[in-house]
């Protein structure tokens, strides 16, 4: 076998096949996000024995169990709090948080902003499918305007959260956004996020075909992601492209990179200096 | 045995923090709340000196989450709070109980409900400590009555948490938390320290929640190659979610059973003058000190009184209590709440003995006089 073949990404080396069939719905984008993450882990040469996946509650929360690593399925909204303790106690572990739009922005919103502020070396993947899928399709902080959900029976009247802007404002060291349609770009973005020394936040634009798509007559998965493609554009296009190409005005790609001091190193250095005085 | 003493004036909260570090605590996450803040403050000063980590989290929920995460990574951990914060910690406390992640949670009780009286003592969280998180779950709660006992019980809390892979709650009240007493630290020079049982041996086919016989499975250490799954969902021996009634029944029997089978290690009681007692006073925390004085006063007045003090409040030391209650005419339960432990006492005496409460929960500690008066009034009836 050549070196190239040996280094080729084989997803079966990173998943728990004994748990299959998995429980994600047909058309769900979360599996694509999972593959992109595992491909990134492989490309970076991370030992799965040293990999810790921390997730919360919801569809996103269940994704972690399929990864053949040290996996922690924690409480609703709290994976970042749990991951903060884990990473501080075990800096040798590569700690990656998988969360969702409800888990991360609603019930766990406070933990997100403070995780960004601290800038501890964690990677946070927020799988945004615009809905609480697990509980039957209720409105979330990222459900688009006028969309129908089981708790917006006359269409959503609430404004949405721009999670990346929130992360930027709160001080995250690395912020990016990508859709599951652009799988290689998503993989590369995740690689950059993991490699960044500080808190990295990625919003993954996933899709919920079965519950959200059906409720809104958005068609099959392919139609949903193509509609997403029309909604978002890569930062590499610059600012010249007019509003007509970006109805939601959101950009994809690396949105922010800031090499400010990482939390654990800063804590250690600071205390060592003060204790010597 | 050395007779050398190391006498220190310590506040209850301060003693709790120092004892935690002595027991091996190397990670503390907390959130400011009266009257427990001195614990966090001491940890913030002391932990960096021993290469430990202190972090003030964004809220009570996060501090509970962070200690569970750190413990899952292998650290001995603690957080401290008071009523409102204890309420917020309940969900993650249940997670720690189900996933069997060792952790120590201190609740310095203050007046409630709600914001209540932050600077006043109370004992209103007794039942919350037992049943606060949803679902049936194991609970260990310890209630020291002096600064020295805070020190001893904090060390014991860590040992029990590690031995049984479970959260352990230390309950004391504002008075004990802020009381300054002389503690002989020489007593604690070489305390017995229990360390966690880590999984070793064969990795292939490892079942993280299989019962090794004593109900407490060895824990897989992240990075040891076992790559286990930890979830708050009901799970089987393999750690993965299940809704199979038989597997869930098996799991719950072990989870609750490990406390029952280790009662000998968990239970600690302090029984005074109960051998011939007609009146048994059951009290814990600062109230027990008033109760002990009341016992002396009652004896001086010719009433054979005794004190039964559960240092371990949960699981309640049932057998030890039944023994002293058997010959009593009256069991008196003074507590700074509207009547919580008394429910357990009534259950245990099953109507065979008269039970009465002294329930004052308006911000002042219960005095010996109030207990004596109630005892005498009850005896006349």
Describe the 3D structure.
The complex is a heterodimer of chains A (277) and B (381). Chain A has 277 residues and is α/β, with parallel strands linked by helices. Chain A has one domain: Thiamin diphosphate (ThDP)-binding fold, Pyr/PP domains (Rossmann fold). Chain A is built from 11 helices and 10 strands. In chain A, helix 8 links the parallel strand 7 and strand 8. In chain A, helix 2 packs across helix 8 and helix 6 packs across helix 7. The termini of chain A are far apart. About 3% of the residues of chain A have low confidence. Chain B is an alpha/beta fold and 381 residues long. Chain B folds into 2 domains: 182 residues, Thiamin diphosphate (ThDP)-binding fold, Pyr/PP domains (Rossmann fold), CATH 3.40.50; 112 residues, 3-Layer(aba) Sandwich (Rossmann fold). Chain B is 38% helix and 22% strand. In chain B, the strands form 3 sheets. In chain B, strands 2, 3, 4, 5, 6, 7, 8 and 14 form an 8-stranded mixed beta sheet that branches. Chain B has a 5-stranded mixed beta sheet with strand order 11-13-12-15-16, sandwiched between helices. In chain B, strand 12, helix 10 and strand 13 form a beta-alpha-beta unit. In chain B, helix 1 packs parallel to helix 6. The longest helix of chain B is centred in the middle third of the chain and has 18 residues. The mean pLDDT of chain B is 97. The chains are: A alpha/beta (277), B alpha/beta (381). At the A-B interface, strand 2, helix 4, helix 6 and helix 11 of A face strand 2, helix 3, helix 4 and strand 10 of B.
Key attributes of the depicted protein:
heterodimer, A: 277 residues, alpha/beta, Rossmann fold, 8-stranded mixed beta sheet, two-stranded antiparallel sheet, B: 381 residues, 2 domains, 5-stranded mixed beta sheet
Short synopsis of the structure:
The complex is a heterodimer of chains A (277) and B (381). Chain A has one domain: Thiamin diphosphate (ThDP)-binding fold, Pyr/PP domains (Rossmann fold, 3-Layer(aba) Sandwich).
């Amino acid at each position: 076998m050549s070196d190239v073949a040996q280094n080729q990404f084989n997803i079966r080396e990173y998943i728990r096949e004994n748990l299959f069939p998995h429980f994600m719905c047909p058309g769900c984008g979360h599996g694509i996000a999972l593959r992109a993450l595992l491909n990134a882990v492989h490309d970076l040469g991370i030992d799965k024995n040293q990999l810790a996946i921390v997730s919360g509650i919801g569809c996103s929360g269940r994704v972690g169990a399929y990864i053949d690593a040290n996996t922690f399925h924690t409480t609703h909204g709290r994976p970042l709090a749990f991951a903060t303790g884990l990473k501080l106690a075990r800096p040798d572990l590569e700690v990656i948080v998988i969360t969702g739009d409800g888990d991360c922005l609603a019930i766990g919103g406070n933990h997100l902003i403070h995780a960004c502020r601290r800038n501890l070396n964690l990677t946070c993947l927020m799988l945004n499918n615009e809905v609480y899928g697990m509980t039957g399709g209720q409105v979330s902080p990222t459900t688009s305007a006028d969309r129908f959900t089981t708790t917006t029976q006359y269409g959503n009247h609430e404004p949405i959260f721009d999670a990346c802007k929130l992360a930027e404002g709160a001080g995250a060291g690395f912020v990016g956004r990508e859709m599951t349609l652009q799988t290689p770009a998503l993989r590369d973005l995740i690689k950059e996020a993991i490699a960044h020394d500080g808190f990295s936040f990625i919003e993954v634009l996933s899709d919920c075909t079965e519950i959200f798509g059906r409720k809104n007559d958005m068609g099959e998965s392919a139609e949903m992601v193509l509609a997403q493609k029309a909604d978002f554009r890569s930062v590499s296009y610059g600012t010249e492209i007019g509003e007509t190409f970006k109805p939601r005005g959101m950009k994809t790609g690396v949105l922010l990179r800031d090499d400010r001091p990482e939390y654990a190193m800063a804590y250690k250095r600071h205390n060592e200096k003060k204790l010597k005085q | 045995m050395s007779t050398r003493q190391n006498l220190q004036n310590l506040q209850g909260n301060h003693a709790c923090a120092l004892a935690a570090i002595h027991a091996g605590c190397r990670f503390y996450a907390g959130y400011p709340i009266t009257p427990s803040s001195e614990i966090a403050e001491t940890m913030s000063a002391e932990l960096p000196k021993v290469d430990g980590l202190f972090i003030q989290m964004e809220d009570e929920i996060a501090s509970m989450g962070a200690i569970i995460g750190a413990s899952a990574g292998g650290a001995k951990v603690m957080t401290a709070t008071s009523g409102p914060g204890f309420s917020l910690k309940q969900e993650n406390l249940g997670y720690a109980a189900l996933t069997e992640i060792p952790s120590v949670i201190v609740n310095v009780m203050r007046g409630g409900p709600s914001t209540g009286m932050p600077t006043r003592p109370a004992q209103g969280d007794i039942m919350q400590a037992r049943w606060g998180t949803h679902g049936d779950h194991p609970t260990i709660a310890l209630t020291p009555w002096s600064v020295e006992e805070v020190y001893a019980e904090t060390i014991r809390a860590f040992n029990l948490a590690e031995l049984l892979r479970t959260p352990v709650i230390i309950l004391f009240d504002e008075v004990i938390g802020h009381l300054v007493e002389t503690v002989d630290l020489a007593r604690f020079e070489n305390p017995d320290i229990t360390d966690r049982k880590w999984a070793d041996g064969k990795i292939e086919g490892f079942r993280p929640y299989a019962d090794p016989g004593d109900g407490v499975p060895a824990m897989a250490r992240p990075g040891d190659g076992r790559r286990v799954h930890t979830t708050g969902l009901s799970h089987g021996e393999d750690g993965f979610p299940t809704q199979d009634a038989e597997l869930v029944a098996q799991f719950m029997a072990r989870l609750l059973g490990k406390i029952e089978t280790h009662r000998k290690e968990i239970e600690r009681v302090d029984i005074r003058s109960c051998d011939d007692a007609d009146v048994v006073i059951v009290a814990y925390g600062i109230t027990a000190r008033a109760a002990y004085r009341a016992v002396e006063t009652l004896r001086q007045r010719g009433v054979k009184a005794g004190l039964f003090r559960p240092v371990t409040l949960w699981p309640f030391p049932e057998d030890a209590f039944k023994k002293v209650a058997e010959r009593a005419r009256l069991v008196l339960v003074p507590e700074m709440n509207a009547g919580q432990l008394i429910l357990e006492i009534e259950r245990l005496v099953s109507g065979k003995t008269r039970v009465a409460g002294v329930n004052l929960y308006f911000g002042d500690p219960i005095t010996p006089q109030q207990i004596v008066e109630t005892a005498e009034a009850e005896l006349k009836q």
